[in-house]
Design goal:
The complex is a heterodimer of chains A (414) and B (480).
Chain A (H helix, E strand, L loop, with lengths): L12 E7 L2 E6 L5 E4 L2 E4 H4 L6 E4 L6 E5 L3 H7 L9 H10 L7 E5 L5 H10 L4 E6 L2 H13 L6 E5 L2 H4 L9 E4 L8 H7 L6 E7 L2 H13 L3 E19 L4 H35 L5 H38 L12 E7 L9 E7 L2 H9 L13 H16 L6 H6 L2
Parallel strand pairs in A: 7-8, 7-10, 8-9, 10-11
Antiparallel strand pairs in A: 1-2, 1-6, 3-4, 5-6, 11-14, 12-13, 12-14
Helix pairs in contact in A: 2-4, 11-12
Chain B lengths: L1 H14 L7 H12 L17 E5 L5 E5 L5 E3 L5 E3 L11 E5 L2 E5 L28 H9 L4 H11 L8 H15 L2 E5 L3 H11 L9 H10 L7 E6 L4 H10 L4 E6 L17 H7 E5 L10 H6 L7 H26 L2 E7 L4 H8 L3 E11 L2 H11 L5 E15 L6 E2 L9 E7 L4 H4 L8 H5 L11 H12 L2 H4 L3
Parallel strand pairs in B: 8-9, 8-11, 9-10, 11-12
Antiparallel strand pairs in B: 1-2, 1-7, 3-4, 5-6, 5-7, 12-15, 13-14, 13-15
Helix pairs in contact in B: 1-11, 4-5, 7-8
Classes of the chains: A alpha/beta (414), B alpha/beta (480).
Chain lengths: 414, 480
């Protein structure tokens, strides 16, 4: 798929990490330049550097990290042609569908190729992915992309409306993933494509509950079992180092000090006022200007009350830093004591899609298994009495039919 | 003698004789026979003698049973049968146990339930409604009456059954079925099913690694066929199992453990891996042997003594082999260039990441799981002060399962509370000469002053840049 070499070579796809928000793909073509608000870079200067290198810009406007592409980085960097699948869903689907090295998988539709890249990576050269896209322009774009990414051997891309025309393979794949507006229309086609010699799996990806209900009933009618539905999300955590919260005892102490100071001030003011009264009593016919001046002073004093408050705060801050320093050694440069805390971001993704899963147990498998003990007892017994008749007729049929797709209907749809 | 013990332990650890039951060696040939020729890595799976198989009983409980060749398998109330009945059978089938024999039955499909006018208006708790006593039911069972027949009789005798809503009737039947029916289903040993089994059994032993957590670890860790990974797994081996499953034999895993001999990864039991495949993919070092300063004690003493007899010679050659493979393994680790580091450990996380990340290739993935947000918050805070860890981010996993029944679709009343937290970062090279690749070393000081700097580097700039970085990327950081 992508380069696994240690160093970057010409024509490699690299991921340029500018910031967490700004991650973009770049094809290394010597002679070209990469320009961004974090400086400009010559492609040829990147050749030969190990993947994961930090590179300073030529004009000193910043730096970049040059990373090896992974499906996860590609999901962050890819050009959106449609709504795309993200890590949580992709990872969960991969596990439920039991996708691993060597798996054969169908995907419809291709969309922007987020799931395609991840699955191609996971199945590897021993596996295969058949991908279908009904939108011609998107399909062409995806084909170019997959070829550039060296995925042509692993992914077969077909321009096709699978709901109408079905898939290009039969009795072949281990798992089917349907990200379609009406997945129920593709369920019967999917059943044909799934291999008949083992338990196989399907996932339908739909944002709306109404779609889920229709899908579930289509899957049930087609003989799929173990139908389950999940929702999975990632809740990113905001980690910050905050100053260690102070104890309320120290807050109380600070307030006591403040009260004490205010009381002292009040006493001073009373004393001042008395002094002035006495002065006024002494010189009753003093100039009015001086009285105005006094009034001004009182006012300044009252606005000064606010200043006093801020002084208290400042003192408290000082106090807290003092306290932080005190327990340690005399080193005043010790950083303020902090604690690291984590919380979920105020706004997070709340819903992507409902993931509806089901298994298909081919009728031929059940028939074969039933055939073994029937050497001893000829009749096929089932749990529910009303099912017995159906099963009796179905079992011998299934024995003859190798692919046996139609038989599941008889067996499991009431 | 002391030297001997060390040597023996080492050979055991390296050859993994602890993990693999001997019986599995014999199943090796059968396993390959069962496969079709078209898809070598993902062939038809069938149950083999010596396998440990998960089975689901009617109550929904999943049990792990070891299938010895030609022996009785006891499923308690559900019944017992001979193991041969399951050998060479595919996974996923449901069986009835009748007279110690197995009969495959079609799987359940969802039945539509007709809506009626019935309500629970006239149904009161504690009323005597079931004249059929448990003694009578026991007698019926002994006389060989089938489960469905017993349930039918119970329903006939039930005083208020007809008053129940159709939904309630179905619930009643389901409950009775779970009680009396003698069926079980073999579970396909996918990573999903194995993880779910262990998680439900005791999530503490998995350090809260739920299947969604594990899936994200494997994807973020970039696990791909042919890749090379370092795994630290104090979670019963669930992470090791995950990586091994995804690789299916193509790739390399070195685990670092805290014990002298072979680490016990109990989760691997249900994978039923064959010994050869396991040995070629998985090797283990411990925190002593994974240390570059470690000097094996036996190496120096060894050359002095000449082996006297055959027995001693054999022992000596065994020790030599063990010692050689230890040397090779250490060299393999120290040569580095691994693709990913996956950690789920009880030990100090930063010490693990700092010790092992030097062996990662540039751009390699670091994934750390913890049941606690605090441990990872602390780790992230320390990692972001080191320039060779790019964009460490902490996330919480969340998973909700729904009941999907016609007319009754809703989330399950109980859900798993936590699958733990994940930290992901990318190992990068902060080599200062790398900055001069563009030939402007003179500009370096300007780079480091926060102005125009695209990514937090170190010191004061880190905090503000990273905070603003983080706060407007709430949706974006969830991509990774």
């Amino acid at each position: 798929m992508w380069s696994t070499a240690r160093t970057i070579a010409a024509n490699d796809l690299v991921i340029i990490w500018l910031t967490r928000d700004l991650v973009q793909p770049l094809y290394i073509s010597p002679g070209k330049e990469f320009n961004s608000k974090f400086g400009n870079y010559r492609h040829s200067d990147l050749i030969g550097l190990p993947y994961g290198s930090k590179v300073g810009s030529r004009n000193g406007r910043g730096f970049i990290h040059v990373l090896r592409p992974t499906p996860e980085l590609w999901t962050m960097a890819l050009p959106h042609r449609t709504q795309i699948l993200y890590l949580a869903d992709i990872a969960f689907i991969t596990s439920w569908l039991d996708i691993k090295s060597g798996s054969r998988v169908i995907e419809a539709g291709t969309g922007s190729g987020s799931f395609t890249h991840s699955t191609a990576r996971t199945v590897g050269p021993k596996g295969h992915l058949w991908s279908y896209e009904f939108h011609e322009a998107r399909c062409t774009k995806a084909r170019e992309e997959f070829e550039c990414h060296g995925m042509a051997d692993i992914v077969t891309l077909t321009h096709r409306n699978v709901c109408k025309d079905g898939f290009t393979v039969e009795d072949t794949v281990d798992a089917v993933f349907l990200d379609l507006p009406a997945p129920w229309d593709a369920v019967e086609h999917a059943k044909k494509a799934l291999r008949k010699d083992r338990l196989t799996r399907i996932c339908c990806f739909s944002p709306c509950m109404e779609q889920v209900l229709r899908t579930v009933s289509a899957l049930n009618d087609a003989g799929f079992t173990d139908i389950t539905m999940y929702e999975t999300l990632i809740r990113p955590q905001d980690v910050t180092a905050i100053p260690k919260p102070q104890s309320v005892a120290s807050v109380g102490e600070r307030l006591k000090q403040a009260e004490k100071k205010r009381e002292e001030k009040r006493q001073r003011q009373i004393a001042d006022a008395n002094n002035k009264k006495r002065k006024r009593g002494d010189a009753d016919s003093g100039p009015p200007a001086s009285e105005g001046g006094e009034g001004k002073r009182v006012r300044t004093e009252s606005t000064g009350a606010q200043d006093r408050d801020s002084v208290i705060v400042a003192e408290a801050a000082q106090e807290s830093t003092d306290r932080a320093v005190q327990p340690g050694d005399a080193d005043v440069d010790t950083a303020e004591e902090t604690v690291v805390v984590s919380k979920t971001f105020p706004e997070v993704r709340g819903h992507t899609s409902y993931l509806t899963f089901a298994c298909l147990l081919p009728a031929s498998l059940i028939a074969r298994a039933t055939a073994v003990p029937t050497e001893e007892s000829i009749s096929v017994e089932t749990r529910a009495t009303e099912e017995t008749n159906n099963a009796r007729t179905a079992a011998p049929q299934a024995l003859e039919i190798v692919a046996g797709e139609d038989v599941e209907m008889t067996l499991s749809a009431e | 003698m002391g030297v001997f013990t060390v040597g023996e332990m080492m050979s055991e650890r390296l050859l993994f004789s602890h993990n693999i039951p001997l019986s599995e060696v014999s199943t090796l040939s059968m396993d390959t026979q069962a496969g079709t020729s078209t898809t070598p890595a993902n062939t038809t799976r069938t149950i083999q003698a010596g396998y440990t198989v998960l089975v689901k009983v009617p109550t929904g409980e999943v049990r792990s049973v070891k299938l010895e060749d030609d022996s009785t398998v006891n499923l308690g109330r559900v019944g017992s049968f001979n193991s041969l009945k399951l050998i060479n059978q595919p996974y996923g089938l449901t069986y009835d146990i009748v007279d110690k024999k197995l009969k495959a039955v079609p799987p359940h499909s969802i039945q539509e339930v007709e809506d009626t006018e019935a309500t629970n208006e006239l149904i009161n708790d504690g009323e005597f409604v079931q004249p059929l006593t448990s003694e009578e039911i026991e007698a019926l069972k002994k006389s060989g009456v089938s489960a469905s027949e017993i349930i039918k009789r119970q329903i006939e005798q039930h005083a208020n059954y007809s008053l129940k809503t159709e939904y309630s009737k179905e619930k009643y039947k389901k409950r009775k079925e779970a009680k009396y029916s003698k069926t079980f289903t073999t579970i396909d040993p996918t990573l999903f099913n194995i993880c779910e089994y262990w998680f439900n059994k005791d999530q503490n032993r998995l350090r809260d690694i739920r299947i969604d957590t594990l899936s994200q670890m494997l994807n973020l860790g970039g696990v791909r066929p042919g890749g090379r990974y370092i795994v630290v797994d104090d979670a019963s081996g669930i992470v090791v199992a995950g990586v091994l499953e995804r690789l299916s034999g193509d790739g390399r895993v070195i685990t670092i453990c805290d014990v002298e001999s072979a680490p016990a990864y109990p989760v691997l039991t249900q994978l039923n891996l064959n010994k050869e495949e396991l040995a070629s993919v998985l090797s283990s070092l411990n925190w002593a042997t994974a240390d570059e300063d470690y000097i094996p004690l036996l190496a120096s003493n060894e050359t002095a003594r000449e082996p006297q007899n055959e027995r001693q010679k054999l022992r000596a050659s065994k020790r030599k082999a063990a010692s050689d493979s230890l040397i090779n393994l250490r060299e393999e680790l120290f040569n580095g260039e691994f693709d990913g580091l996956l950690v789920a450990s009880e030990y100090d996380l930063l010490s693990i990441v700092d010790k092992l990340s030097p062996y990662l290739a540039g751009s390699g993935s670091i994934v750390v799981q913890s049941p606690n947000a605090q441990s990872l918050a602390d780790l992230q805070n320390k990692m972001r002060q080191q320039p060779h860890y790019l964009a460490p981010a902490v996330t919480e996993v969340w998973l909700r399962r729904y009941q999907v029944l016609p007319g009754r679709t809703h989330p399950f009343m109980n859900m798993s509370g936590s699958g733990g937290f994940l930290l992901h970062a990318i190992k990068v090279y902060d080599d200062p000469t790398a900055q001069s690749a563009a030939g402007r070393r003179a500009k370096k000081p300007r780079l480091e002053s926060a102005e125009g700097s695209s990514e937090p580097v170190m010191g004061q700039g880190v905090v503000c840049a990273q905070m603003s970085d983080a706060s407007n990327t709430a949706p974006n950081s969830s991509l990774l």
